[in-house]
Amino acid sequence: xxxxxxxxxxxxxxxxxxxxxxxxxxxxxxxxxxxxxxxxxxxxxxxxxxxxxxxxxxxxxxxxxxxxxxxxxxxxxxxxxxxxxxxxxxxxxxxxxxxxxxxxxxxxxxxxxxxxxxxxxxxxxxxxxxxxxxxxxxxxxxxxxxxxxxxxxxxxxxxxxxxxxxxxxxxxxxxxxxxxxxxxxxxxxxxxxxxxxxxxxxxxxxxxxxxxxxxxxxxxxxxxxxxxxxxxxxxxxxxxxxxxxxxxxxxxxxxxxxxxxxxxxxxxxxxxxxxxxxxxxxxxxxxxxxxxxxxxxxxxxxxxxxxxx
Amino acid sequence: xxxxxxxxxxxxxxxxxxxxxxxxxxxxxxxxxxxxxxxxxxxxxxxxxxxxxxxxxxxxxxxxxxxxxxxxxxxxxxxxxxxxxxxxxxxxxxxxxxxxxxxxxxxxxxxxxxxxxxxxxxxxxxxxxxxxxxxxxxxxxxxxxxxxxxxxxxxxxxxxxxxxxxxxxxxxxxxxxxxxxxxxxxxxxxxxxxxxxxxxxxxxxxxxxxxxxxxxxxxxxxxxxxxxxxxxxxxxxxxxxxxxxxxxxxxxxxxxxxxxxxxxxxxxxxxxxxxxxxxxxxxxxxxxxxxxxxxxxxxxxxxxxxxxxxxxxxxxxxxxxxxxxxxxxxxxxxxxxxxxx
Lengths: 309, 341
Known about the structure:
The complex is a heterodimer. Helices cover 72% and strands 0% of the residues of chain A. By secondary structure, chain A is mainly alpha-helical. Chain A folds into two domains: 12-71, no CATH class; 94-266, MetI-like (MetI-like fold, Orthogonal Bundle), CATH 1.10.3720. Helices cover 63% and strands 2% of the residues of chain B. Chain B is built from twelve helices and two strands. Chain B has a two-stranded antiparallel sheet. In chain B, strand 1 and strand 2 form a beta hairpin.
């Protein structure tokens, strides 16, 4: 286990190193300068600004400096907001994103599991049909369309929730719903298929034959066994939420990192884009690592030492 | 009490060879079906998938047919006819009859704009362009992006997967590591970075989506190749001295086809979704070109007062995604009967 962990963490660091390197050199290829009014600036002014941000050094030196900084969590200074370090920009904005993302993931998956399990139990009835319809709609409707509809109908028309901005819990409801639809739909579909499979297996027959109550069979035998593979889709779901958050945060004007990413892209703020790319991949790597470890713990059949496939 | 059994005379006649054929209990009455025919039969039984297929065919024909026959020019600007609501001749349901609630009163927007004779099925946008033609045009762009991206994805993903699985060993490990690294950055982030470098536009969106979406295909194809290459028919081909490239095309590819087709059905809606997201953010397709994403973005600005401008593209986008998802599910069941309950 310790050996496996060490290996995985080594790969995590290697991955992040490659991500940093690739994004750094990609950013160097970008067209356009960070200067808004280049035409109005004199040569010496441009030179001074470049000096201030360290942009006049050779590329390899910039790269090494960046790498050394990144290890310490320093991603340079934002071009967009002068004198604001990128690390501060990210750390002050990551909380809303994490809160909404985690809420969406947890609520979505829990509701999805319940809906999916009901669908499988009442197979081929209207309950099952509803499950299928809900899950297929959740997968098909893009989160940003859902976000706008929720904002308009529940926020503006019904007035139940604030339309935008960031405050207390009540402000997180609509974005959570918009982002949670996808995890809900995916996990409902996944659990349903998985559970239909499990319900027709021999050990369920045995449990029934022993005279266990229906809820006992469902809860102890069927549900538990169908939940194990659910861990494998947590990684892809996390990607979905990160992707969705970029647009959804914009729609609800939430001061999160998704909104910041889009803003930085539109303003050529290279250091922030790079910093956020690294943060995003770091989060995803950690999620993937945790799910892999969890999978090994929950299902001892998966050997941690070797790869499953 | 003697039991007498009366048998008809002709029971004792020797049977002819024709009769023997008719009586043969081993005879298979139904014609034997090929794998593809069988899959097709199963697909037709799946109502959702069948309807989706028809819907997609209709959408394709309408989107690409609008190059030749379009109700209006999607780029023709009529400022006088701006923001007219949807009007379908002969329908008098509010919302489809060209009326609009303005200052608490329902008025005929077409009369007010002096366009009593005209009718726009989905209404017009803020520049007076026919929304229906715009949606058809946008759907076409979205579909083209998705299809071209998928084509790249097919070639890169399938080749990568087959090569990795076939070679195995060290090469396979390295190739899988590369995939893991790509998977550890959210796709949209990579796409955004690539588009920034290539400058926003249709080509760069296609390239960006193609360069990121092949990973899934490569993984699936590799897993299947690993399984296939241990089988006897591959061993036979190898023993007979077939070149690997020929084995790949003649033996592996046909056996991989179901995996590839099914995965494509999920790649296409993904590509459409990415394109819509990018255009929605504002780094995708730029005007005068339109895609479903830009139409959604335009519509969303006026959603409070003219909700139909967003509803229509949202509806079409959702229908396309829905149809591809259902068709994908149906194809999976059709190609792999084991997954059927």
